[in-house]
Design brief:
Length: about 280
């Protein structure tokens, strides 16, 4: 049962984003990508700029990663690493088309003086890892089934010193954890049960009995691919029903339009990596 009208407290965050000026759908590595559908790059940049400005206006810090030629998916900055307590667990991409993105992310973190741990196992950063900072002393929720290998969950646990809960994704439309689940404050989550195996659904229900539960309409509108500062929830403008659920639970929905970036299989969260000091 969701607690209604609870006072929500925002916390300033630090994010990493990458402009979509080189964004295109040149290959298909998830069910949303269609190489026959043209991308309006100028519109993608405009929508992305509004997302970045939204975060800044909410009081957050946004660092920028320089896009590189030949890497059209770099706009999905969340996939490049997973950062907790100033420790960076690097990505190792499933598909060769994105493999070189990992080095660009590593260079950014090393230049910034972060402690970087190179992965041996295939994982796609915050695409398949979510952090709930006060739940059970700091809990990592980790997805597998399409992009990240289960062995990466154990590797991340050793790298970050936080317990990792493995969750089995079973619907290819929800190929990453971050299109099916998100942390909305330091103790709670929002998720779409249908993206997960029955066993994983039971685990989530046990760990988060007060979770906001989304339906398939908002999940398919990329509504769960969101970021939250604990009070304000920035989410895709098409996910109107989920916005109402979040509002009823005491959060402030902040809708943004990202239609062009949806063509690559991502939305708000895919574009944003959180840098947790």
């Amino acid at each position: 049962m969701v607690i209604v009208n609870q006072q929500r407290v925002p916390r300033k965050r630090t994010y990493l984003m990458c402009s979509p000026e080189r964004f295109a759908v040149e290959y298909a590595i998830n069910p949303w990508m269609d190489v026959t559908t043209p991308v309006d790059t100028a519109l993608a940049v405009k929508q992305w700029d509004r997302l970045r400005e939204t975060l800044v206006n909410l009081g957050h810090t946004v660092h920028l990663l320089k896009p590189q030629a030949g890497l059209p998916d770099m706009v999905y900055a969340a996939n490049g690493a997973f950062v907790v307590d100033g420790i960076v667990y690097g990505a190792r991409f499933r598909h060769e088309q994105r493999a070189a993105e990992a080095a660009a992310h590593r260079a950014f973190y090393e230049e910034q003086g972060w402690r970087f741990i190179a992965p041996n196992e295939t994982n796609e950063g915050e695409g398949d890892f979510a952090y709930v900072s006060e739940a059970h002393g700091g809990l990592v929720l980790a997805g597998y089934g399409f992009r990240t290998d289960p062995a990466a969950h154990a590797e991340a646990q050793e790298a970050l010193g936080r317990p990792v809960i493995s969750l089995h994704l079973v619907d290819p439309r929800f190929y990453h954890l971050d299109v099916a689940l998100a942390a909305i404050d330091d103790t709670n989550i929002v998720y779409f049960p249908g993206a997960f195996s029955h066993a994983s659904q039971r685990v989530l229900a046990q760990l988060f009995p007060d979770a906001v539960v989304a339906d398939d309409t908002d999940a398919l509108a990329f509504g769960l691919n969101l970021v939250s500062d604990g009070a304000h929830v920035v989410l895709n403008s098409e996910a109107t029903r989920l916005a109402e659920k979040l509002k009823a639970a005491g959060y402030t929905p902040v809708p943004v339009e990202l239609a062009e970036l949806k063509k690559g299989g991502g939305s708000v969260k895919c574009c944003i990596a959180e840098l947790r000091h």
